[in-house]
Amino acid sequence: MIRFDDVTKTYIRGQNPAVENLDIEFARGEFVFLVGASGSGKSTLMRMVLKETAPTSGTVHVAGKDLSRIPSWRVPALRRDIGMVFQDFRLLPSKTAYQNIEFALAVIGTPRKVVRRLVPEMLEMVGLEDKGRRLPHELSGGEQQRVAIARAYVNRPSILLADEPTGNLDPSTAEGILDLLAEINDRGTTVVMATHDRTAVDRMRRRVVEMVGGRVVRDDPEGTYESVAPVSVISGNLPDGAEDLEDREDQDRPTTDEAATDEDTTDVGATDERRPLIEPDADDLLDERDAHLREEDEAFAEALDDPEATR
């Protein structure tokens, strides 16, 4: 379903890669947690799945397609098969819950008869069948996230990416969102969720992939948030900020001067001076998608304001 073959992504020439030599596969129907400290490469991985950014080297395959071979004019069709859920919901504030879900259908020209059937089905699935006429500010945070999930899933995508979907929610509400994502996964959709939610990961006991410095350091089929792995940053086995694994290996090697003091030790040469990993923060990483979403929102609004496009 999703496969990375020796993928490296460098944003700024001369800086360490945001993702490096990534070889990993997510099978159809899996539920996978991506964990790791901020800057570990989780957001970059998701951006490459969405073809919002291209790898510097290597290939990314999604649903059997090599993304490097997909022309730009076919990218919207690719993204229609990938749902995306964000931590901050990203609902249109002037549109009701019903209309927010309707947008995802209107933009692809779904017939009104189908829209009138699908939107109520989605509202019922997320437990908001009686709140379709409410605006986002009239809904709780958990309800807003449920609307966002319904909007992402209404096209029945084969892949659902969730970037910290429980990050702004209280534990009880977060549990309900996890149950909803699990239900979507049970219906056959591959779910990849980036999270710092320890409780969610420990409760679900699904596949856990931990990233450190742009590399996968742990891949547990039924894992927990923390790990005894010595390279885990989130478990406290390494300090946050010590993301570059090669840096740590170099620190363990003797320098030229140290090697020279031991006649039985081969001279390994001076260690390379490396810059710390710099990966754009979440806001920077999503700037391109924000612009794309704003363009879509404007198109959606025009479609809904057109009497021929409304219910």
From TrEMBL:
Recorded topology in the membrane: Peripheral membrane protein
Recorded hits in Pfam families, A to Z, give: ABC_tran
Biological process terms from the Gene Ontology for this record are: cell division
Q: Which GO terms describe its molecular function?
A: ATP binding; ATP hydrolysis activity; transmembrane transporter activity
The chain positions of domain ABC transporter read: 2-238
Q: Where in the cell is it found?
A: Cell membrane
Q: Which domain of life is it from?
A: Bacteria
Q: Give UniProt keywords alphabetically.
A: ATP-binding, Cell cycle, Cell division, Cell membrane, Membrane, Nucleotide-binding
Acidic residues composition bias: which ranges?
A: 296-311
Q: Name the predominant localization.
A: membrane
Q: Does the keyword Membrane apply?
A: yes
- Any one of the GO CC terms: plasma membrane
Specify where the region named Disordered lies, as residue ranges: 233-311
Q: What function is annotated for this protein? A: Part of the ABC transporter FtsEX involved in cellular division. Has ATPase activity.
Q: How does it assemble?
A: Homodimer. Forms a membrane-associated complex with FtsX.
Q: Which family does it belong to?
A: Belongs to the ABC transporter superfamily.
Task: Name it.
Answer: Cell division ATP-binding protein FtsE
Question: Origin organism of this chain?
Answer: Brachybacterium muris UCD-AY4
